[in-house]
Sequence to fold (73 residues):
Amino acid sequence: AFPSGHAAVIFCILPLFTRIYPKFKYYFYSLASLVLYNRLYLGVHYFTDLIFGAIIGYSFGYFFLKNLKIAPP
Fold:
């Protein structure tokens, strides 16, 4: 379905995790990319579904991170 729910969820938590654990930022981005690749490889989504899901998810995560003023521990 358009957009990909898996991509939206994994990219929604990405801003929060990178804010809390900045040392592991590249691992989180790699994991998110692997989820996108997996959905594309299995043929359950088109590339545009994944891209728009990622954009929507990251936008929501960034919005909530900025508006809720979540500080790193």
